[in-house]
Design a protein that fits this description.
alpha+beta; Chorismate lyase; six-stranded antiparallel beta sheet; about 15% helix; globular
């Protein structure tokens, strides 16, 4: 259900864990579109010469356990209120999107298997979802989410069974 949903992943993860999630923004800044596979900037309508806004974060439970690791890539130069949410480093993006009440949709571009690397340096297979957030027909954000396999077991994820 999590991988097939075109709704708020944050709200689904909060329902799964039974509590509010907090965000840790690990890094945020600008990067060249050339730093990414071409399908990422292409999915938000920019070419290889463009500069992008990039945010890497994780959502964690009240006990501090990471439940998802997220990459958000945004076009610059758009004045959507959606982009202002990236500057809020204390609230999960999904919760902010809900609070804006904007007409937006998510177009899933991929689901599958990735690697979940933990603090010990080991990695195990995990499920991921990548999608584009669209506001009034305008693709604004590319989002790639990896899910902690302790919460979203790979064998139960609809992408990977």
């Amino acid at each position: 259900m999590l991988l097939a949903s075109d709704g708020s992943t944050t709200l689904l993860l909060e329902a799964l864990t039974g509590g509010k999630l907090t965000v840790d923004v690990l890094c945020q800044g600008r990067a060249s579109a050339r730093d990414f596979p071409p399908e990422i900037p292409g999915s938000i309508g920019v070419g290889a010469e463009s500069e992008l806004l990039v945010r890497r974060s994780r959502l964690r439970t009240a006990s501090g356990e990471s439940i998802s690791k997220n990459l958000v890539v945004a076009r610059q130069g758009n004045h959507s209120p959606m982009l202002s949410l990236l500057s809020n480093t204390r609230a999960p993006l999904g919760r902010g999107l809900v609070s804006l009440g904007l007409s937006q949709s998510r177009h899933i571009v991929a689901t599958g298997e990735d690697l979940w690397d933990d603090s010990s340096g080991s990695a195990e297979p995990c499920a991921y979802k990548a999608y584009v957030l669209v506001e009034q027909g305008d693709p604004l954000l590319y989002i790639h989410e990896k899910f902690n396999p302790m919460y979203v077991p790979l064998k139960e994820a609809s992408c990977c069974s």
